[in-house]
Design goal:
This is Methyltransferase family protein. By secondary structure, this protein is of the alpha/beta class. It has 2 domains: about 1-120 and about 345-360; about 125-330, Rossmann fold (3-Layer(aba) Sandwich), CATH 3.40.50. Helices cover about 55% and strands about 10% of the residues. It is built from 15 helices and 7 strands.
């Protein structure tokens, strides 16, 4: 009887501690929402005193949570509790999740501190930064192999449409720099839906794959049926989105307006055909669409009122140069962290979720 009473007491104490832990985390949610609102302010309106006023009450919970978790852990380690309430794994689920959130504390604080008074960073780094050095050369070497594996055989390549270029691979590190810049511009535009990415003349689809970390909704156009077939098979093996390669003639494609970021690397060798394709894109692109055209022959590079240059090889459709300058200034204040996508990680964030979401919109991640 006494042993049963002791077990019931331990169980009651565990429920009490868990209730207190949940209460503290619920209170923290309200405070972290205030912090998220602070991070959503324009950078010029954030200040160290403003941050300190919000962070101070949040920081007081750190010791309280640590103490509560230590007490909770002691209860869960009591063999009487394990005997009374099933497996230790089941009992520790809530405890482990709360402990994970507490361990994120220093990383959250570091991420937030970087946003209080951020410095402008140019959208495109210098070419030496993304092309020179052993690491860049290694990445481009590996990408070249992936690109080759997604191409048809030499015999099949003889069936290329006459005015199409062979599938020319822009170095992966150069492409990543362009796509990262486009991603920062999208954040500066304050888009409310995930941007859609299109590679015009995608060949084997490897640039679609390379864009996915920044733009999970990515597709490509390719007019060579053999290339579409081989590329689609290659992309399927690496779990790219199904049917991400669309068989279509870029000059006769009438859905460019559905995309937010459009990449094209001179896929046609005939100057007239290339200009026709560029005109199709520029006439259909919605205002604010980001165009990535890393080649000198791009007809709208200078003086075309349908788009304006925001960074080397990057243009914005349908807005005036003065608007583009303002957008560039906002985009340069966006952080340069690579985006992260993990539903399981997000589900475990708890009271930190508002802060992490606001930080991602600013270009910062854990």
């Amino acid at each position: 009887m006494a042993n049963l009473a002791a077990i019931e007491f331990v169980y009651w104490l565990e429920r009490l501690l868990m209730s207190e832990l949940e209460k503290m985390e619920t209170e923290l949610v309200q405070l972290t929402k205030q912090l998220a609102e602070f991070l959503s302010l324009p950078p010029t309106e954030r200040s160290i005193p403003g941050f300190a006023k919000i962070w101070r009450p949040i920081s007081r919970y750190r010791v309280k949570l640590r103490t509560a978790l230590q007490d909770h852990g002691s209860i869960l380690s009591d063999p009487r509790y394990r005997d009374a309430k099933g497996s230790e794994i089941q009992q520790r689920v809530g405890y482990n999740a709360a402990h994970t959130r507490l361990r994120l504390w220093p990383r959250i604080e570091d991420m937030v501190n970087r946003q209080i008074t951020p410095e402008a960073k140019r959208l495109m780094p210098q070419p030496t930064e993304y092309m020179d050095g052993a690491h860049n050369r290694y990445v481009n070497h590996i990408y070249a192999a992936l690109h080759t594996l997604a191409l048809p055989s030499a015999e099949a390549m003889l069936n290329l449409i006459s005015d199409a270029h062979p599938d020319i691979a822009l170095p992966a590190t150069h492409f990543e720099a362009l796509v990262h810049a486009a991603y920062r511009i999208c954040l500066a535009q304050g888009r409310t839906t995930p941007p859609r990415f299109l590679d015009v003349g995608c060949g084997g689809g490897t640039k679609i794959w390379a864009a996915l970390p920044y733009f999970p909704d990515a597709s490509g156009l390719e007019n060579n049926p053999t290339q579409v077939q081989v590329g689609a098979a290659a992309m399927a093996k690496i779990n790219a989105p199904a049917e991400c390669i669309i068989e279509a003639d870029a000059r006769r494609f009438f859905d460019y307006s559905s995309y937010d970021v459009i990449y094209f690397y001179q896929p046609l060798k005939d100057p007239d055909g290339l200009r026709e394709m560029e005109d199709q894109i520029l006439e259909q692109a919605r205002p604010g669409t980001i165009l990535i055209a890393p080649y000198a022959a791009f007809s709208a590079a200078e003086g075309d009122l349908r788009c304006s240059r925001i960074a080397p090889s990057i243009y914005v459709a349908g807005i005036a140069p003065s608007q583009t300058e303002k957008l560039c200034a906002r985009a340069e204040m966006i952080g340069t962290d690579a985006p992260e996508h993990s539903n399981s990680f997000d589900a475990a964030l708890g009271y930190w979720r508002p802060v992490v979401d606001a930080s991602r919109r600013n270009g910062y991640t854990l």
